[in-house]
Predict the structure.
Amino acid sequence: MHAIPTVPQPMPESKPQTLGVLVVDDDPEIREMLMEYLGEHDCAVHVAADCTEARALISSQPISVALLDVGLPGEDGLSFARHLRELHDVGIIMVSGAGETIDRIVGLEIGADDYLAKPFELRELRARLRSVARRYARVSARPAPGAEHATRRLRVGECLLDLDRQQLFGANGNDIPVTAMEFNLLRVFAECPNRPLSRDTILDLTQNRDWDPFDRSIDIRIARLRRKIEPDPYKPCVIRTVRGVGYMFCPTP
């Protein structure tokens, strides 16, 4: 009796993972445009005209990244970004007018992961949404308390950076909250110890984009990190400024 040869079945194509996006903008045309465009590119888009609607959505929908307009009626986007950073584990991209530099700086200082100036190119927006979502992805399965788990940890001054859990722990073992961008900055520094890194190199390694001479995002985030990891953030010894170059990470200050 002859065996019937089997025909290999093609592997099913994997579909891109749906990205939950919250768009908060008081302009109905922008909301409609982003819902249509992002919806065609594997995003589940939820829109809100103000922060009241946004608060209801963020509590009831699976959101990965929030796209917040700074100039919202009532509670502004900066206030809502602060609320998100304190209570929700989501990426945040601020949107402001081209000349509103101070709003971008404040947004980064309160923990936003990125920013865009209006008008923006839709493909760039989509790329930044994906980039922030990838950086902000946490390890999906964390061990139960007491379970054995081998982790990769790097010394950051008196702190420990857990690469697997994407967490930062203080000298006394306490969990120090860090944003996705702050974690990536620490990871890049920890992987390049005692080596001066330019701002352009840092941005390329963390956000895959070039540095603009007027872009203060790296300086702002490093100032925030210093407040979390330095014994004295006004006299930094872990992340040192290299005049004319950028910054250098020193594991043992």
User: Anything to note?
Assistant: Residues 1-8, 10-14, 138-150 have pLDDT under 50 and may be disordered. The chain has two domains: 19-136, 153-249.
